[in-house]
Amino acid sequence: MRSGTPRRRNKAARPLSLVLALVLLGSLYAALMPSAQVAADTGTSAQVAEGKALFQVTCSSCHGLNGEGTSQGPSLIGVGAASVDFQVSTGRMPMARPGEQAPRKVNTYTAEEIGKLSAYVASLGPGPAVPKSSQYDYSTLTDEQIARGGELFRTNCSACHQAAANGGALPNGKYAPSLHGVEPLHIYEAVRTGPQQMPVFAEGAIPDEDLASIIGYLKGIEDQPSAGFSLGGLGPVTEGLFGWIIGIGGLCLFAVWITSRGARAK
After folding, report:
1. Where does heme c 2 bind (predicted)?
2. Distance in angstroms (rounded) separating the CA atoms of residues 196 and 112
3. Residue 161 among known ligand-binding residues
4. Is 186 annotated as a binding residue?
5. Do 80 and 129 meet the contact criterion of CB atoms below 8 Å apart?
């Protein structure tokens, strides 16, 4: 070989350099990635997987194997974890058989199982999450805030649940349940998810602070003793019925009695 002639490069040098760079980059990423994040992701994935297995055993007959819905039950894609937590925690789901309305029953699931079901359904599509306790806490509300909660309740809710929150009948055999004894968490979730015939009130319509005021008002009227003859606290329906039957009926009987006495006097 003549002196001064450049050496030829090995054809494999460039691919080997690229592979070495990729290996070094991967090693650097693995070394710098936080281990806590990996553990969190693994835990969430495991919870979703366990929730899916539980869902397919207890819920898929009505809602489909992947929550897509069937003729027996609606799709759960996009309903969110809050809807699952409300329905299962209050015993409304699972239903023994489809009907007009799912009544409140004793819950047979553990909190851990409900969390797994909620996590799985939440993974199907974005929806309302289970709220934090600070979002519905009413313990620090002022009297003015609770009074505002009463105004909001009478404006938005009393048409179905009645002014005293005793519940009421709806068309086609359905009903608005009583709100006495309902957990604040479940009231919050019902407002945000709109179960059964109830409309959905997003945070843009009723902010969290207003919703906490409504909850504070409802808890306040639970503790108030009944003043006099409340007629069930159902509002103008029972009051009007009482007025017609007792009031006007009594006047009619009195008029007949007066007439009969006058006839005897003659």
Report:
1. 157, 160-161
2. 25
3. yes
4. no
5. yes
Q: How many residues does the chain have?
A: 266
Backbone angles phi, psi at 237, to 5 degrees: -65, -55
Residue 160 marked as a ligand binder: yes
Would the annotation count 252 as a binding residue?
no
* pLDDT, tens digit (0-9, with 9 covering 90-100), for 128-151: 999 999 999 999 999 999 999 999
* CA–CA distance, 161 with 60 (Å, rounded to integer): 32
Please identify, among 110, 130, 150, the residue that sits at the C-terminal boundary of a domain: 130
- Mean pLDDT, the chain, rounded, equals 85
Question: Which domain covers residue 125, as residue numbers?
Answer: 41-130
Check whether 62 is labelled as a binding-site residue: yes
Structure tokens at 92: 């409304």
Q: What is the separation of C-alpha 48 from the centre of its chain, rounded to a whole number of angstroms?
A: 20
176: enclosing H helix or E strand: strand 175-176
Tokens 């309302």 belong to 128
Q: Whole-prediction pTM value?
A: 0.72
